[in-house]
C-alpha cells in the first residue's frame, strides 16, 4: 500500500510517499480502506521529532484519525462487518491507504454523513467533548469561553457547547469571526484587537464564565483564571504559545474555588482513548446524524500532497479540519 513516511525529522519537505507493507490485523482490529484522513497538530509535532520514533503500539507512520470502509477484521471484533463505514482514532498509521483500528476506538459513520466528511470528526469532536463535558462538566445554562475557536477542536467545541445549551464566548482572528458565529458562538472576540478578559467581564457584568477551554497556554493563563466565575473550571488542551512564562494568580484560584485540568489524547493508554471515544459516541452520534453538529472542513489534499497539507496547517489560515484523501 502507499503511505506517507519520513526518514528524518524536519519541515514538511521531509514527507514522502512510499510503498509499505499492509498492517497486520490483530484480534480486536478492523482493517479500513481509508477514504479520508484527518490532519492534526500532533502530526506536525511527530514530523518535527517531539515524540521520537515511538509508535504508541500501532505504527510508526503518522496520523491519528481515519474514515473509510472495513475490508478485514480480527477474530474478537464485535458489532462490525465487512463493508461497514467507520470512523475513529488510531494509535498512528493513518497516513496510508489502509489502516488498522481497534474496533473499540471506532464508530459507525451515521447515515447522511459522507466518508469524506467523517474523516474530520473523531479527533476534534472527541477531544472537545472530553474537555467540555467529562472534565469541565459543562451544563445547559452555563457559560464557556473557547479559545482558537476557528481551529479543528475549537470549532467542534463551539458546536457542542451551543448544542448543549451553553452561552458561548469564543476568540478568533478578525477574518474568521463570521465562521465562528456560524458555528454557534454568541460572542466572538477578536484576540488581535480586544482583550478577552475585559470583554468577558463586561458581557457577564463582572461574574465571569463557568468554563474556559484553552489551546494557547502560558500567555493566556492569568487572564483565563481571572475570567472564571466562582467554581469555574479551566481545561488546557494545547500549548500553541509554548511552555514558558505562565503566571497563575493563586489568590483568585483559592478564593474563587477554581479547578484547572490538562488533557491530551495522543499519548494516553488505549483503554483511556477507547472510553473517550465511547463517551462521545453515546451522547452525540444521533446529533451528528441529524445535522445538529457537523464537521467543519477547511481544505482537502491527495495523500501524496501531505506536505502541502502540513504547510496549510502551519500557515495559521485554516478554519476547521484539513483532510487527506487517498483516492485523490
Descriptive overview:
The protein is of the alpha/beta class and 328 residues long. Helix content is 30%, strand content 26%. The protein has 10 helices and 15 strands. Strands 3, 4, 5, 6, 7, 14 and 15 form a 7-stranded mixed sheet that branches. The chain has a 6-stranded parallel sheet with strand order 10-9-8-11-12-13, with helices on both faces. β8 (143-146), α4 (152-163) and β9 form a beta-alpha-beta unit. α3 (122-135) packs across α4 (152-163). The chain starts with a strand and ends with a strand. The mean pLDDT is 95.
Instruction: Please count the helical segments.
Output: 10
State the low-pLDDT regions, or none. none
Number of strands: 15
Helix content class: 25-40%
Report the span from N to C terminus.
15 Å
pLDDT averaged residue by residue: 95
Which band does the percent of strand residues land in? 25-35%
- The arrangement of helices and strands along the chain is EEEHEEEEHHEHEHEHEHEHEHEHE
Largest sheet: 7 strands, mixed
Class by helix and strand content?
alpha/beta
Radius of gyration over all CA atoms, rounded = 20 Å
Choose one word for the global shape: globular
Amino acid at each position: 500500500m502507499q503511505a506517507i513516511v519520513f526518514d528524518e525529522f524536519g519541515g514538511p519537505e521531509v514527507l514522502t510517499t512510499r510503498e509499505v507493507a499492509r498492517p497486520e490485523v490483530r484480534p480486536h482490529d478492523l482493517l479500513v480502506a481509508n477514504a479520508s484522513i484527518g490532519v492534526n497538530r500532533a502530526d506536525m509535532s511527530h514530523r518535527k521529532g517531539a515524540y521520537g520514533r515511538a509508535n504508541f503500539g500501532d505504527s510508526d507512520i503518522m496520523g491519528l484519525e481515519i474514515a473509510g470502509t472495513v475490508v478485514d477484521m480480527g477474530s474478537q471484533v464485535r458489532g462490525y462487518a465487512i463493508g461497514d463505514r467507520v470512523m475513529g482514532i488510531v494509535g498512528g498509521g493513518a497516513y496510508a491507504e489502509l489502516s488498522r483500528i481497534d474496533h473499540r476506538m471506532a464508530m459507525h459513520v451515521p447515515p447522511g454523513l459522507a466518508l469524506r466528511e467523517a474523516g474530520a470528526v473523531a479527533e476534534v469532536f472527541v477531544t472537545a467533548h472530553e474537555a467540555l463535558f467529562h472534565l469541565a462538566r459543562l451544563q445547559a445554562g452555563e457559560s464557556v469561553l473557547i479559545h482558537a475557536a476557528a481551529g479543528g477542536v475549537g470549532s467542534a467545541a463551539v458546536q457542542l457547547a451551543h448544542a448543549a445549551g451553553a452561552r458561548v464566548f469564543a476568540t478568533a482572528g478578525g477574518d474568521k469571526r463570521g465562521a465562528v458565529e456560524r458555528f454557534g458562538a454568541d460572542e466572538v472576540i477578536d484576540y488581535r484587537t480586544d482583550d478577552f478578559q475585559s470583554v468577558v467581564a463586561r458581557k457577564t457584568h463582572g461574574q465571569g464564565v463557568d468554563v474556559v477551554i484553552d489551546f494557547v497556554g502560558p500567555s493566556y493563563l492569568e487572564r483565563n483564571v481571572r475570567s472564571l466565575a466562582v467554581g469555574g473550571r479551566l481545561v488546557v488542551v494545547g500549548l500553541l504559545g509554548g511552555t514558558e512564562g505562565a503566571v497563575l494568580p493563586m489568590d483568585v484560584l483559592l478564593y474563587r474555588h477554581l479547578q484547572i485540568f490538562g488533557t491530551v489524547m495522543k499519548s494516553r493508554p488505549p483503554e483511556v482513548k477507547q472510553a473517550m471515544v465511547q463517551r462521545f459516541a453515546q451522547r452525540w452520534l444521533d446529533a451528528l446524524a441529524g445535522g445538529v453538529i457537523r464537521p467543519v472542513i477547511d481544505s482537502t489534499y491527495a495523500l501524496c500532497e501531505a506536505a502541502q497539507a502540513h504547510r496549510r496547517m502551519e500557515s495559521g489560515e485554516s478554519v476547521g479540519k484539513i483532510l487527506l484523501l487517498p483516492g485523490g
